[in-house]
Amino acid sequence: MSDRIAGSVILLFSIWYGFEASRLELGFLSGGLTPRQWPYALAVAMAILAVIIIVRVDPEPNWPPLSKILDIFAVAASFVIYAYFLVIVGFLVATTIETAFLSQRFGAKPLQAVIVGIGASLLLYVIFVFGLGIPLPLGRIFGGR
Amino acid sequence: MEVLEQLQLGFSIALQPQNLALAFVGVFLGTIIGMLPGVGPVNTIAILIPITFVLNLSPASSIIMFAGIYYGSQYGNSISSILLNVPGTSSAVVTALDGYPMSQQGRAGPALAISAIASFIGGTLSIFFLIFFAPILSQWAIDFGPAEYVVLMLFGFASIASLTGNNVFKGLIAAVFGLILATVGLDPQGTTWRFTFGFMNLLDGLDFVVIAIGFFAISEVLHMLTEKDEEGQVQTSVGRVFVTMEEFLGSFWTIIRSSISGFVIGSLPGAGTTIASFVAYTTEKQLLDKDGTFGKGDIRGVAAPESSNNSASIGAFIPMLTLGVPGSGTTAVMLAALMSLNVTPGPLLIQNEPEVFWGLVASMYIGNLILLLLNLPLVGLFARVLLVPKWVLMPAVGLLSVVGVYAVNNNPFDLFLMALFGLIGYFMRKLDFPLAPVILALILGWLLEDNLRKALIYSDGDWTTLFASPITLVLWGLTALSLFAPVIINRFRGKTELHLEGESG
Questions:
Q1: Are residues A48 and A82 in the same domain?
Q2: Is this complex's ipTM strictly greater than 0.90?
Q3: Rounded to whole angstroms, how far apart are CA atoms B118 and B71?
Q4: Does residue B502 carry a pLDDT above 50?
Q5: I need a labelling partner for B201 at 20 to 30 A (CA). Which of B63, B92, B251, B285 fits?
Q6: Residues A38, A77: one domain?
Q7: One domain, residues A33 and A71
Q8: Of A26, A63, A103, the CB nearest to B192
Q9: Cβ of residue B406 closer than 8 Å to a chain A Cβ
Q10: Residue A123 neighbours by CB distance under 10 Å
Q11: If we measure between CA atoms, which residue out of A70, A66, A91, A71 comes closest to residue A141?
């Protein structure tokens, strides 16, 4: 069943990709392969392979429970949120919170998570800024860039 | 004699204090990170690439460090297989078969020692083969035109797609997906922006560092999040790490045989270290296992996969350095790193950038020596890393990835892409799609399209140019063979099983 769903998603993706390719505005052409033909070929190959996956299904994988799947999305989203907060509150604050959150998701108790967060952000800051000479954002609210 | 002169050049580069230090740091970090469950060489290199960019290392210095990480993490993997029965990557699965029983019997010391020694001998032998074969292969490939390159790359994709996963079609989907990702940005002709959807950040195409870290490291972190904790006692008291002369001599021919087969298999695109260690183990088992000791803590069962996978990891450099078509995920990531440093791996590499090639060769030797000297005395210390709980290790891996990706361009959009590809990578992993073909195809996709376009211009749009030369025909033959290899292997397996049933019944 998982393979059927995956195959269908891939099939839809390849149709969408081929459609987007057909809408490309072409510039000056110098012969050989046009910038549209290659994506067309890939879209067709992908569609054929997707149909094969739908027809010949592999054994079902062991899915984790739904709550764990939601966890995965939460962790992935946290990286994005981190990216935008980094500029505002600066590396040290953002990293401490992000690491503590990750640590807690991996089973740390609250106090442990906070310690890991503070420790990791200080350690990384020292390594990157003083060791490697890579500047990290100080944070807009603290007057940094 | 020319080779000796070149080697001397190589050693003079590899022995520069900075490069020596980088090899040391690479091996050291590689060993530690390689020990962490699930974090293999690809992840380690992907995470550390941004740092080499920011440090402005020369191409020779960068590849020296990557190579150090590569075999360091290979060994780190062996440590966790032997002590914990938790192989970091599939190539170390075989090491656990006899290595873990040995450590349960209190013989962790000899297991770790033979692993280091076997790796060292395997590495040394295969470096010797590399020096011999790489220039020959690159001489042969020097006349390749665009048509030959197109077919060569197709062969690379086909073999990596069919050999890295369990399902050829899923491997191929992964490869095509990588090719599709490579079409984002300016087309090779330089006239059309494709699939950028108005995002300024996509005009230059997808950055392989971001995608590789998302696909490998982040998806691994997400994967670990859903895995149940491994039960099992960590053995940190490894005792003295040594082998007796008797044990060493008993494994000597095993090491030699496995090194040779490992090198041959490793140099085939796609086959890689996993298949090499499986082949070495089963061969030795068939040859030597008269008393049924394999699988119950036979030291030769550790020596075989260890020498073979180290040898294969060096063999894997051959297609990457001489043809510009890497044979594994790890070498693909290294290739991409070299390309962004303006080094084009391929037949001309040895001529045009002798310091990169020979510096790498010399540093491999030095790296293997460092590995041996570092590991024999320090392995007990390394083993303590395994006691660090998951809730410290995994956030650390995630954080290193995030900071690395951010350090490349200082652009939050990159972190969004990284998280997105981390999720895609997680679901691909779960559904048994291999990840290595995606990265390989992403890196080579642009070159493939460009060469195809050139080939068609030279032939006036005649597609039969792809079948015109003897070289292309040989490569098409190899492509077909690699696609059908799993089918043939399975057929064989099926037959022998039937055969056995017939005998017993």
A1: no
A2: yes
A3: 13
A4: no
A5: B63
A6: no
A7: no
A8: A26
A9: yes
A10: 13
A11: A91
